[in-house]
Design goal:
- This protein has 409 residues and is α/β, with parallel strands linked by helices.
- The chain has 15 helices and 5 strands.
- The protein starts with 6 loop residues before the first helix and ends with a helix.
C-alpha cells in the first residue's frame, strides 16, 4: 500500500527547508569582505610602486610585498570558492548552465568536494605566510618560526586526513550505486555500416568515465532502433588524442543526466577528432538509461523533414519525434543548406527547445553557423545553446594519423 504523507509533516519539512535562505545574507556579507580585500590589494600595490619609484625598495622588501599581494589574491580566491560553492551547495542552485565562464568545479560541487578544496586553499595560504617568515628571517623570532612551521604542518596533516576520508565516502557511495545496478557487459560488437566512421580509439583510464550500465533487453532494442551507424562506447574513446579535451565534461555527460534535464550537447571540431564517436556513445548511454534515441546525419534529417513537408505532414512528423527524448544530428555544416532546409532545422530546434534534447556534431563553431543556415542561424543557435554543453575537440584527424602510420610501416 502506498505511503500517504501527513500534510502537517510535509508543511513543516518545507518550512524547515526554506530556512536555508537565512544563510543568503551571510554570503553577501562575504562579498563585502571580498571588496575589502580588493581595496587592500590595490593599497599594497600602490605602496610597492611608490617605494620602487622613489628607490627605497630593497630586494627583500619587493619579495615580501609581492608575497603579500599573492596572499591577498589567494584569500580572495578562497572567498569566491566559499561564496559561490557554498551558496550553490547549501542555499540554492545558480543558473550558470551553458554560461561560457562557468567554473569547472561548480558543475560537480558538493559539501565534500568543497571541504577538500577549502582545506587545500588554506594550506596554500599558510605556505605563503610561512615563506614570508623565512624571507624576512632576520626580523622574525625563532619562536615565531617554530610555531609558524608547526601550524603549517598541522594544516597539511588536517587537509591530508580530510582528503583521505573523502575518498572512502565517495567510494562507498559509488558501491551503493553499483550494488543496485547489474554487472557490466562484455564488449559488444559493432553493428551496421557507414560511408565513414569515427576513429577507432584506445580505452582510457577506468576512472575517466562512469561505468557502462549492464545488459538490458529493452535497452538493446532501443539501441537497435536508434539507427546508429556503429556501436561506440565512451570507454573506447581515446581521450589523449584531442588537444585540450575536458575529461570532466565527458564524465558528467556519460551519466546521461542531460537528457532528463532536457539539455543539448554540441561537439565542435575538425574532421576525425571523435565527434561522431562521442555522439553515438552518449546516445547508447541514453538508450541504456531508458530513453528513446534517433540518429541521423544532418543531410538525412533534412531529407526526412523535407519529405514530411512535401507530404503535408511536417507538424505530425515533428510531433512524432517528441516521443524520442534525444535526437542526434551528425555532420552539421558538411553539406550546404538552402533557405527552405534551414527553416526546417529551425523548426526542429525550436520545437524541442526546453522540451527535449539534441546532440549535434559540426566542423565549425556556432558563431559560424550563418555559413550553413544563413539568416536562420542566430535564432537557431540562440535556442540551441541556451541550455547546452559546448564541447570543443581540437587536433589532427585520427583517421589520417592512422593512415600515415600504416604507410610509414
Amino acid at each position: 500500500m502506498a505511503h500517504v504523507q501527513n500534510p502537517t509533516t510535509t508543511t513543516l519539512g518545507y518550512a524547515l527547508f526554506a530556512t536555508r535562505w537565512l544563510q543568503a545574507p551571510l554570503y553577501f556579507g562575504l562579498v563585502a569582505a571580498q571588496g575589502v580585500y580588493v581595496y587592500k590589494f590595490f593599497k599594497e600595490l600602490w605602496t610597492l610602486i611608490l617605494m620602487c619609484v622613489t628607490g627605497h625598495a630593497t630586494e627583500t622588501y619587493v619579495m615580501l610585498a609581492v608575497l603579500k599581494l599573492v596572499d591577498v589574491v589567494m584569500i580572495a580566491n578562497l572567498l569566491i570558492m566559499v561564496i559561490v560553492g557554498g551558496y550553490e551547495t547549501f542555499v540554492s542552485r545558480i543558473g550558470l548552465q551553458g554560461h561560457r565562464d562557468q567554473p569547472e568545479w561548480l558543475s560537480h560541487v558538493n559539501s565534500n568536494v568543497l571541504k577538500v578544496k577549502l582545506a587545500t586553499a588554506i594550506v596554500g595560504i599558510s605556505s605563503v605566510h610561512l615563506l614570508q617568515m623565512f624571507v624576512d628571517v632576520h626580523h622574525t623570532s625563532r619562536h615565531a618560526l617554530l610555531w609558524g612551521t608547526v601550524i603549517h604542518m598541522a594544516f597539511i596533516a588536517s587537509a591530508a586526513i580530510l582528503a583521505y576520508m573523502s575518498g572512502p565516502m565517495v567510494a562507498h557511495t559509488d558501491r551503493g550505486h553499483a550494488d543496485r545496478a547489474p554487472a557490466a557487459p562484455a564488449q559488444a560488437p559493432d553493428h551496421g555500416g557507414r560511408r565513414h566512421t569515427e576513429p577507432e580509439s584506445q580505452r582510457p583510464p577506468a576512472a575517466a568515465v562512469p561505468p557502462q550500465p549492464g545488459p538490458d533487453a529493452d535497452a538493446e532494442a532501443r539501441i537497435r532502433a536508434a539507427g546508429f551507424p556503429a556501436r561506440k562506447v565512451l570507454e573506447e574513446f581515446d581521450q589523449q588524442h584531442p588537444r585540450g579535451f575536458d575529461r570532466e565534461v565527458l564524465a558528467r555527460l556519460g551519466k546521461a543526466d542531460f537528457v532528463t534535464a532536457r539539455r543539448n550537447v554540441v561537439f565542435v571540431g575538425p574532421p576525425g577528432t571523435g565527434k561522431t564517436h562521442l555522439a553515438v556513445a552518449l546516445g547508447v548511454r541514453a538508450c541504456q538509461a531508458g530513453h528513446r534515441v534517433l540518429f541521423a546525419t544532418a543531410a538525412e534529417w533534412a531529407a526526412r523533414l523535407a519529405d514530411a513537408r512535401a507530404a503535408g505532414r511536417l507538424d505530425a512528423e515533428l510531433a512524432a519525434l517528441d516521443d524520442h527524448p534525444l535526437l542526434i544530428v551528425d555532420e552539421v555544416g558538411y553539406t550546404p543548406c538552402d533557405a527552405a532546409t534551414a527553416g526546417l532545422f529551425f523548426q526542429l530546434v525550436a520545437r524541442r527547445y526546453e522540451r527535449a534534447s539534441l546532440i549535434l556534431t559540426s566542423d565549425r563553431p556556432l558563431g559560424r553557423w550563418d555559413e550553413v543556415f544563413g539568416p536562420s542561424a542566430p535564432a537557431l543557435t540562440d535556442r540551441l545553446a541556451h541550455h547546452a554543453e559546448i564541447v570543443r575537440l581540437d587536433g589532427d584527424s585520427y583517421r589520417t594519423r592512422r593512415a600515415t602510420s600504416a604507410w610509414a610501416d
